[in-house]
Amino acid sequence: MLRSLSDDILSQWLREDVPYGDATSLALGLQGGVGHLTLAARQPMTVCGVEEAKRLFELVGAHAQVHARSGHHVRAEVELLTAQGPAEALLQAFGVVQNLVQWASGVASEVARIVTELRAAGLHQPLACTRHTLPGMRALSVKAVQAGGGIMHHLGLSDAVQLNPEHRVFLDLSVDDMVGRLRRAQPEKKMVAQVQSLEEAMAFAVAGADILQLDQFTPEQVRQTRLALHNSRLHPALAVSGDVTAANAVAHAEAGADVLVSSAPYMAAPREVESRFSRALSQ
After folding, report:
1. Nearest C-alpha neighbor of 95 from the set 125, 53, 155
2. CATH fold group of domain 122-267
């Protein structure tokens, strides 16, 4: 996969961690030493972030090579990346590198786990992750979701028309009028309505919503909604959101969801990686 973060962002991360030089390396007189570093998986994982890690090492004056690209599934002990160069450069970058790869691989691995469970159950619905990640982490989050086999629900407020309960607080309009206003203003986009009950779902389906986002619905409520829509000859797509996790993704899909919308992978535990250092002969 391609690198998702610019040199400016990666350099900013390095400056944040080492704003005025590495005090310990300077005090020990490590300037001039040459080293080798291997980044390896401590546990099975879906890899993500190694392309950014390679560039981080290059920005501090080292050379690096990727051995397991983002999106690859690896076992424990597999080498992900190696780097060679000045000892102080390797020591300056490895903390940022390790944190980046561990977090991104944690997200990618959780996405892959949910997708794998769906496919093992014979289900083909996509896992769509939300934009609700940490500020400033959108690009890396998108890469991690894609590395794990997921898709993005929305990239931001500019790329979708989704009528939420929060919008409706400020409107004194009927359901038909709200949907009609959105259709006239954004005729080329599908209209998504987030609903919180079967009654709301039916009202927006009758008004012509293309997609119903069923928020905090149980699998049984999803099944009831699908049946009610079928009996009324209404066929909007159903996206289930709110607490969709590996524990209930299969149940939601079997109940009739067309898309599973989740933020859970962003909260997954990081996948552990190990940085192994060794001396190298002076260049």
Report:
1. 53
2. TIM Barrel (3.20.20)
